[in-house]
Design goal:
Layout (H helix, E strand, L loop, with lengths): L2 H13 L7 H14 L13 H12 L4 H9 L2 H4 L4 H8 L1 H10 L10 H18 L2 H15 L8 H21 L3 H15 L1 H17 L3 H15 L5 E6 L2 H11 L10 E7 L2 H14 L8 E2 L12 E6 L5 E8 H9 L2 H4 L1 E2 L2 E2 L10 H12 L3 H12 L3 E5 L5 E5 L4 H8 L1 H6 E6 L2 E3 L11 E5 L9 H4 L3 H33 L21 H10 L4 H8 L8 H9 L5 H10 L5 E2 L9 E3 L11 E6 L3 E6 L15 E2 L1 E2 L10 E10 L4 H11 L3 E10 L3 E10 L2 H12 L4 E6 L4
Parallel strand pairs: 2-5, 13-18, 14-16
Antiparallel strand pairs: 1-2, 3-4, 4-5, 6-7, 8-9, 10-11, 10-12, 15-16, 15-17, 19-21, 19-22, 20-21
Helix pairs in contact: 1-2, 1-3, 2-4, 3-4, 3-9, 4-7, 4-9, 6-7, 7-8, 7-9, 8-18, 8-19, 9-10, 9-11, 10-11, 11-12, 12-14, 18-19, 18-23, 19-23, 23-24, 23-25, 26-27
Length: about 725
């Protein structure tokens, strides 16, 4: 292949929009790449150096600056050859060296999995493009050329699909987020051809058939719109185009409809001179044709986060066809094609304003925040996919600031979008002036006000209804940290208890030599492992004092010899044990301590803890039938108590079984009795229906066992309720 021709073609393309380009430096970069890639061959048989030159040519198509073009030519030299960043900096300057470093993949990655390497590389890409968005532009050019040549890997279908999946989940959304729709659409279509070739082929055949069936319709619509523009004295250029195969397929999936049911396969674009004419043309169209409800979007007054501006409307147009129309200015059209690249493009020999407008890419700052929250690369990658690959809704703060969120976002997502501190402390919200639960899904145009409290912290339940990566990463990080703290607190109490039983005082330094034995990295991990149930507290003691003879073994023998432990047997064991039971006060329910749903233990009940591997301790009432299942594993039993003082949990769930008369007002009476006695029904289930009576159970928030007993007594006094008892564990 003629190296000189490739070099000349690239230089000529760059000179076509930038007459001030240093052609010698670009030529030097091509020679550098050829020298260091000498002997390397691509899958199609071409010399490897042709790939970076093709990437540079792709970036020249969107008129990128000189440094970006040179970076594209050199982007693989550090990763795949003996060239170093120092070599590049000496010959091409620090700016190019920094960009090349940002594009270069990590060479030493600890993760052994493909997914782990992918995640680590993406972490680095996000960090690099946060410093200079041109890193992403070069990366997108590299990915686009790789996708164009991916068909050469015919013997590696698995590799084709993996790369295509990565492209459609990460790189195409990134291209969309920075507004380069031309690259985004080609990446999607190429990925589509490898992931769903049969579906793509089917859509292509149907589009071909549609063209034959509707010959002349597109021209008719264009001529009609053009005529209406001229009559209104608007200088407009009208064009029509088919939607991409992937966008058609995605719409079929989202709406669960067949191809024949789609009525907006074509989109028409009207380019005018200024913003005033955009709205003038919109008025002309709406005065001639009825609009389709819900299909009007004004991205001029409310631009997308990537800077995209246009008016979208769908009308019942000529020949009663649904016609989707986009109206924009020439500048808006260029921005729609080039996106952020327009800020780096050379116009009349001068670089564009490339710094100031990039601040509007709020999503990039949010990716960095997710990166700070997620210590695991795979978590970061997953949260990033959530952040990128979504439709949007637009909401407003009380001051009128626009917040763009994914479709399905809740008030919690809105709070985190404002600021992470607002998200962490949110306790409630108002939507359009009305109080709403934090889980409420937001709609376009909602005005949302978030209430906060300094005493609030993220709830594990928030993750169920949050959809943004930023919200999920903050919530998960808090939960992980709280769980670790709780497991450590529980584990330390369990270890201290065992040491005291054997007559020793515990100090963490005793565990300094045990990390290897328990296959952990630090002493804290040993203690945490005990709290999680992955390490047995007595095994820790035995590891510290391997020759010690336990005087307290009899308490465990009692459990072994008696298959079904009961209160008397447990009391016998406690007499042998000289230490008081371990209090669970201060431990957050749902973290290291879980209350068994089979028996719903309440303060005042005699309780016992069962250590569950990886989950900490599950607390049961002493007479819970489920305990029979653990009779043969006494090492999992833990003597616990509720503890005293203000740190004890305020409310718990108690379950009541009852039989209620099947008559009007009975449920109202039930609810009123519970409320009058300061309880709160959280769940109700009817388990059996007959003509005269219903069997059911209710879950009630109460303070302790006495509170529940009062509610049960009040229910028994009601004539509509024939049988009431507290539910026992089964």
């Amino acid at each position: 292949m003629d190296n000189q021709k490739l070099k000349n073609d690239l230089i000529e393309k760059v000179q076509s929009y930038n007459s001030d380009v240093d052609i010698n430096l670009i030529g030097k970069s091509v020679d550098f790449a050829r020298k260091y890639h000498e002997g390397q061959i691509r899958k199609n048989g071409d010399p490897y150096y042709t790939h970076p030159i093709e990437v540079a040519s792709l970036l020249a198509d969107i008129r990128l600056d000189e440094a970006s073009i040179i970076t594209a030519v050199l982007h693989d030299t550090v990763e795949d050859t003996d060239a170093t960043l120092d070599d590049i900096e000496k010959q091409f300057g620090k700016e190019v060296a920094t960009l090349v470093d940002g594009v270069t993949k990590l060479n030493q990655i600890e993760s052994k999995t493909v997914e782990g390497k992918q995640a680590e590389n993406f972490r680095k890409l996000v960090l690099a493009m946060s410093e200079d968005i041109r890193v992403l532009l070069v990366k997108l050019g590299d990915r686009l050329h790789n996708m164009r040549t991916l068909h050469h890997f015919k013997d590696r279908v698995d590799k084709q699909r993996r790369i295509a999946r990565e492209t459609i989940e990460i790189y195409a959304p990134l291209a969309e987020r920075i507004g380069i729709h031309k690259i985004k659409e080609e990446l999607e279509d190429l990925s589509f051809s490898f992931l769903y070739p049969e579906a793509r082929e089917s859509i292509m055949k149907r589009l071909s058939f549609l063209r034959e069936e509707e010959t002349g319709l597109v021209d008719t619509i264009i001529k009609t719109l053009d005529k209406q523009a001229k009559e209104a004295k608007i200088n407009a250029k009208v064009s029509g185009r088919e939607k991409t195969r992937y966008s058609i397929w995605k719409k079929m999936q989202r709406k669960n409809v067949a191809f024949e049911q789609l009525s907006d396969i074509m989109a028409f674009r009207i380019i005018v001179d200024d913003i005033g004419e955009c709205y003038h043309m919109l008025g002309v169209i709406h005065s001639h044709y009825p609009t389709v409800p819900g299909r009007f979007k004004d991205y001029i007054s409310t631009p997308k986060s990537n800077g995209y501006k246009s008016i979208h409307t769908t009308v019942i147009g000529p020949e009663n066809q649904r016609v989707e129309i986009q109206i924009r200015t020439k500048e808006m059209h260029e921005e729609a094609d080039l996106g952020v690249a327009a800020h780096w493009a050379y116009k009349q020999g001068k670089p564009g304003n490339n710094k100031g407008d990039l601040k509007k890419f709020r999503w990039l700052r949010e990716l960095l925040e997710i990166l700070e929250q997620d210590s695991h690369a795979e978590d970061f990658l997953e949260n990033t996919k959530l952040e990128l690959f979504t439709e949007q809704v637009f909401c407003f703060t009380p001051k009128g600031d626009l917040i763009e969120l994914p479709a399905g976002a809740s008030c919690v997502d809105f709070a985190y979008a404002i600021h992470s501190d607002v998200g962490n402390k949110c306790v409630g919200a108002k939507i359009n002036g009305r109080i709403a639960p934090l889980s409420t899904k937001l709609n376009n145009g909602d005005q949302v006000s978030v209430q906060t409290s300094k005493n609030q912290s993220p709830s594990p339940t928030w993750e169920r209804f949050s959809v943004t990566g930023k919200a999920k990463s903050h919530i998960r990080r808090y939960i992980r940290q709280q769980q670790r703290d709780q497991y450590m607190e529980l584990g330390r109490a369990m270890v201290v208890k065992v040491f005291k039983q054997e007559g020793f005082d515990f100090a963490e330094k005793m565990l300094s030599g045990l990390t290897g034995k328990f296959k952990v990295d630090a002493i804290e991990d040993v203690i945490t492992g005990v709290g999680q149930g992955n390490i047995v507290a007595r095994d820790v003691f035995k590891a510290v004092f391997p020759d010690h003879k336990s005087d307290q073994q009899q308490s465990q023998d009692d459990f072994i010899n008696n298959k079904i432990p009961n209160v008397e047997q447990f009391n016998k064991a406690k007499k042998i044990n000289k230490n008081a039971p371990m209090p669970i006060k201060g431990l957050i329910p749902g973290m290291a301590v879980h209350f068994a749903r089979c028996c719903h233990p309440l303060p005042g009940d005699r309780i016992v803890g069962i250590v569950a591997t990886g989950r900490g301790v599950t607390v049961h009432t002493m007479d819970c039938d489920t305990l029979e299942n653990f009779a043969d594993t006494p090492e999992r039993w833990l003597d616990v108590s509720w503890g005293e003082g203000k740190d004890a949990p305020e409310t718990h769930v108690g379950r009541i079984n009852m039989t209620i008369s099947n008559e009007a007002g009975a449920l109202g009476t039930l609810s009123n009795i519970v409320t009058t006695n300061e309880g709160n029904i959280t769940n109700l289930k009817i388990t059996n229906r007959s003509l005269d009576f219903w069997d059911m159970y209710i879950d009630v928030y109460v303070e302790d066992v006495s509170h529940l007993a009062n509610i049960v007594a009040a229910l028994r006094a009601s004539p509509e309720i024939t049988d009431v008892e507290r539910a026992k564990g089964r």
